[in-house]
């Protein structure tokens, strides 16, 4: 299996190639990541070509294309999904789509060992402006215990979950929520900034590939969660 993964769900941009067979399936062969603003549209195709070539392969050798489907930046998701669908059509390859928050959680799963004395939930958060975040909750088995949603955070948010479990909050939306949620004894905020990455998109896509969880490239759309909002330009005054 040879799998290309793409993540453009936030301001960063990353691509990865995973490969291998049998017990080695899903081995990370290469990953390129850029963390500068507005890089997706300008650099994505260049990164894809480079990572595939530098792992010793050609695009035609890929078995599938995986993409981070959202939630996240409206523009970023459109770029990533459009690029992935274009590759699928051009190369006649299947499409895999992974929840961005689920892929983020894979990055912090090792932290569960620090809380072995009590139940723990993972809460990835992506900044959705003001006091709103895209978030969900996963347990240590990877089961989603609350649907992915756009949440406006208040001091009472998630009180039911925080009453019974330690919750590890992380992602670029977590820092702004700490003043509102930090009073809960079970709220833990990760100091390390966790950014969505094609590395873990590819890990989950390897499992999806094995179980045949493919998307239809002709009809698939990003998981936006809410409509794209624009502001009306102000009329010039004399």
From TrEMBL:
Name of this chain's protein: N(6)-L-threonylcarbamoyladenine synthase
EC number: 2.3.1.234
One BP annotation, GO: tRNA threonylcarbamoyladenosine modification
One CC-aspect GO term: cytosol
Catalytic activity line of the entry: L-threonylcarbamoyladenylate + adenosine(37) in tRNA = N(6)-L-threonylcarbamoyladenosine(37) in tRNA + AMP + H(+)
Residue intervals passing through the bilayer: none
Top EC group: transferase
Highest taxon above the source species: Bacteria
Entry-linked InterPro entries: ATPase_NBD, Gcp-like_dom, KAE1/TsaD, T6A_TsaB
Species for this entry: Spirosoma sordidisoli
């Amino acid at each position: 299996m040879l799998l290309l993964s793409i993540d453009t769900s936030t301001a960063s941009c990353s691509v990865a190639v995973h490969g291998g067979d049998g017990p080695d399936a899903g081995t990370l062969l290469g990953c390129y990541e850029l963390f500068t603003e507005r890089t997706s549209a300008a650099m994505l195709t260049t990164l894809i070509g480079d990572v595939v070539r530098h792992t010793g392969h050609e695009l035609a050798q890929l078995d599938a294309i995986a993409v981070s489907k959202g939630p996240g930046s409206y523009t970023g998701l459109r770029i990533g999904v459009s690029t992935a669908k274009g590759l699928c059509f051009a190369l006649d390859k299947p499409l895999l789509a992974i929840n961005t928050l689920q892929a983020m959680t894979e990055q912090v799963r090792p932290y569960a060992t620090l809380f072995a004395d009590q139940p723990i939930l993972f809460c990835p958060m992506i900044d959705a402006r003001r006091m709103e975040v895209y978030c969900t909750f996963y347990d240590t088995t990877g089961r989603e215990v609350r649907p992915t949603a756009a949440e406006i955070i208040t001091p009472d948010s998630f009180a039911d979950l925080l009453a019974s479990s330690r919750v590890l909050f992380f992602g670029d939306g977590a820092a702004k929520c700490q003043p509102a949620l930090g009073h809960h004894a079970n709220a833990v905020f990760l100091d390390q900034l966790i950014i969505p990455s094609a590395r873990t998109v590819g890990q989950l896509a390897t499992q999806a590939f094995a179980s045949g969880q493919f998307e239809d490239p002709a009809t698939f759309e990003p998981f936006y969660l809410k409509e794209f909002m624009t502001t009306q330009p102000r009329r010039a005054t004399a």
